[in-house]
Structure formats: C-alpha cells, structure tokens
Design brief:
- By secondary structure, the protein is of the alpha/beta class.
- The chain folds into 2 domains: 189 residues, Rossmann fold; 169 residues, Rossmann fold.
- 43% of the residues lie in helices and 17% in strands.
- It contains 15 helices and 13 strands.
- A 7-stranded parallel β-sheet has the order 3-2-1-4-5-6-7, with helices on both faces.
- β11, α11 and β12 form a beta-alpha-beta unit.
- α2 crosses α3 and α11 crosses α14.
- The structure holds ligand GMT.
Length: 374
C-alpha cells in the first residue's frame, strides 16, 4: 500500500509509535510518506521505501500565527494526489484528523484516500475537552474512515467523554524488542553507579502530568535503605523544579539529570528499576520500552498503565501520589534478588509476547485492509 503518516515529530510517544510503525511497514514493502513539520526524530537514517514531506508554514504580515493546520492539509493534498496514496494515517487527533478530512475532500473526484486516526492520549483526555477543540475533535473522529486507540482505557474514555458512537479498534503500542533488550554488561552502568549502587530510572517530557517530582520523592525514600542513584532522562517544563527539589532534599549528587538523549535503549539497560508515577497515561510507552529491557516498573494505577504492567508480576502499581508505597515496592524488589529476577523476566516476556512489532504491526495492516475495502 501507499500510506501517508502524519505525527508530531518531536519528543513524545505518539511520534515514536508513528515513526516505528512507518519503518516496520516500509520493511514489509509498503511505501511510506511521512508528512510533518520536521523529520521525526527516530527517522535519522536513510530507509528504503520511506519518504519525507516537510510542511512549510511560511509567513505573511497578516498572519500573526502560523497557519499550520491549513499548511498541513495543503501538503497532504499534494502527497495524496501526486504519490497516489491509498490511505493517510494520522497520529494524535488534533489537528491532524481535521486537516486530513479537508485534504480528502479536496482530492475527492481524483481519488478516494481513506483516513485512519490513532488516538494517543491527551488529544482525548485533555486538549480535546477544551471548548475550542471539542467539536473539531469529535468531527475529526466521526469523519475518519477508521479509528484506533492505544488502550481499552482510551477507547472507553473517547466513547464516554464525547458521547460518540463509532467503532474504535484497540491496537496497543509496540516496541522493537531487538533494539530494546536486556544487556548483561551494560556499557554505562559503572559510569552512573561506580560503587555497585542500584540504579532507578525515569524518562519523560517533564510535563506536570508525569509527576517527575514523585519519582524524586520515591528515590529519596529508597536511598535511605539502599545505596542507589536516580537517572532522569528527558526535558520539559518541570525540569527546573525537579532540580530544585533534588537540591532541597540534599540528594542532588545522587540524582543525575541527563536531559534529552537518543540512545535510550542503552541507558535503560544500565538500570534496575523504572519509575512512572504519572497523573494520567493512556498507555505508557516509556514503561513498555523499559520492560522490554527487563526492567520491572513501578507506576501509578492511572489510565492504560494496568493494561501494560501486571501488578505483582512485571512490576507494582500504586495510587497516584502514594510515594511511600511506591518506595516500599522498590525496596522490596531491590532487596530480593530472586523476586527481582522473576519480575525482570516477566517484564521482558510481556513485551515480547504481547507488545512486539511482530505482534502489533500486522494488526495495523489488517485494519488498513478492512478500512480500504469498506
Ligand atoms: O498525549 C500526550 O500527552 C502525548 C502523547 C505523546 O505524543 O507522547 O502521549 C500519549 O501517547 C503515548 C503513545 O501512545 C502514550 O504512551 C502515552 O501514555 C500518552 N500520554 C498520556 O496519556 C499522558
């Protein structure tokens, strides 16, 4: 098939999923056209069957704000027509679904391009609920030829929050299990934990919804019992506050802020435990990537996380904000080698058995077939 893919190309799970999906589909012989305002950050090399079309917003004295949705629709029209797309798959509904709808209408008569929209998270749980976007979001979903959600939780939220009657297929996120894999002697481990300390890790975009401060509070309790370090990867609005908190708690030497990093798999492989204390999380791709490396995850019970992490099996789940309990779980695992090894294996096995590209990509292909034949 000839497939267009639109996503947010910068840091963020939806862009990662969209890019990895495009790469996997290209490997299987599909022709993939990414349409976005920047090259998706995991598309950092030449890949056969993959093309990239940049959306230029341009400027004009009248336009105080860039006209991104229109520019995107315009670029979609070009790619739909000149590359003869069968389908366009947009990731994160706002504003991608409505831009795709507009492009499809313009192309009508020339060709029938199907629209698939994948709902990822705050497009449904936060941004879409704002009065400015609510009607657009609902329209974009209803006008899509096929809609998928990354978890059962997100599907239910969509149907109830927006009183929508629409078939939504749950297709979970996936991970490259050959890239994200356990490593016996992880390269940088002794750089971060030179004296054999345990290494806790968290990766995110440091938005308030991630509650990164809770990861620091959990670590502060854990380190009183166990010599350990906390590795924080990523950047965003809460970073300064997190650095301040680490200084206030007097643990700034043990909390290592690495900022944005590319070689995430290697860094995860250095660690022992992944912390994800989020306020809201429709899936938790970061947790899945950690599990694939063999890290048990300690998370909150929010959103789709319980669909990824099994409590007392591949990790532990606590209430949002219950840092004491999360710390207790962490200490429990880090002081019981036998239990830790079982959890670590369960985490890797879950990623391989339920969330590998081999399992999930064919689900998208089957969905595309269904949509194009409807
Ligand atoms: O929805 C967002 O806040 C952004 C989005 C993204 O682009 O990173 O994250 C969501 O999509 C990811 C990929 O499907 C999920 O793993 C995240 O759980 C989800 N984030 C939230 O629900 C907060």
């Amino acid at each position: 098939m000839k497939i267009g893919i639109t996503c947010y190309p910068t840091y963020g799970g939806s862009g990662v999923v969209a890019t990895e999906l495009g790469i996997e589909l290209a490997k299987k012989g599909h022709e993939i056209h990414f349409i976005s305002y920047a090259i998706p950050f995991r598309l950092n090399r030449f890949i056969d069957n993959v093309f990239y079309h940049e959306v230029e917003t341009g400027t004009y004295p009248l336009f105080e704000f860039p006209l991104y949705s229109d520019a995107l629709a315009g670029k979609m029209v070009e790619v739909m027509m000149y590359e003869n797309l069968d389908l366009i798959h947009v990731h994160y509904a706002i504003p991608h679904a409505t831009s795709a709808y507009l492009a499809k209408q313009i192309c009508k008569g020339h060709q029938d391009v199907k629209i698939v929209t994948t709902l990822h998270g705050t497009d449904i749980t936060l941004v879409g609920l704002e009065p400015t976007y609510l009607h657009l979001l609902k329209f974009g979903i209803l006008q899509s030829d096929g809609v998928t959600a990354v978890s059962r939780f997100l599907k239910e939220k969509t149907l109830t929050n927006y009183s929508i009657e629409k078939d939504i297929e749950v297709i979970p996120n996936f991970v490259d299990i050959d890239l994200y894999k356990p490593e016996e002697s992880a390269a940088f481990r002794c750089r971060f934990a030179p004296n054999g300390e345990k290494l806790l890790i968290h990766t995110s975009n440091f938005r308030p919804v991630k509650r990164v401060q809770d990861a620091i509070k959990v670590f502060d309790i854990v380190k009183k019992d166990i010599p350990s370090k906390l590795l924080l990867i990523g950047d965003g609005p809460d970073r300064s506050e997190c650095e301040r908190l680490a200084r206030e708690l007097g643990i700034e030497k043990e909390v290592i802020f690495l900022g944005k990093q590319e070689g995430l798999a290697q860094l995860l492989a250095c660690a022992d435990l992944f912390l994800l204390p989020s306020q809201s999380e429709s899936f938790g791709l970061a947790a899945l990537e950690a599990m694939a490396v063999g890290l048990p995850v300690i998370s909150t019970s929010t959103g789709g996380l319980p669909e990824v992490i099994s409590h007392n099996h591949s990790g532990f789940i606590a209430e949002i904000g219950d840092v004491e309990r999360m710390a207790k779980y962490a200490v429990d695992l880090l002081t019981n080698e036998k239990k830790y090894k079982i959890f670590s294996k369960n985490a890797r096995d879950t990623a391989v058995d339920k969330f590998s590209a081999t399992k999930i990509v064919p689900m998208y292909e089957a969905f595309y077939e269904k949509v194009t034949n409807s």
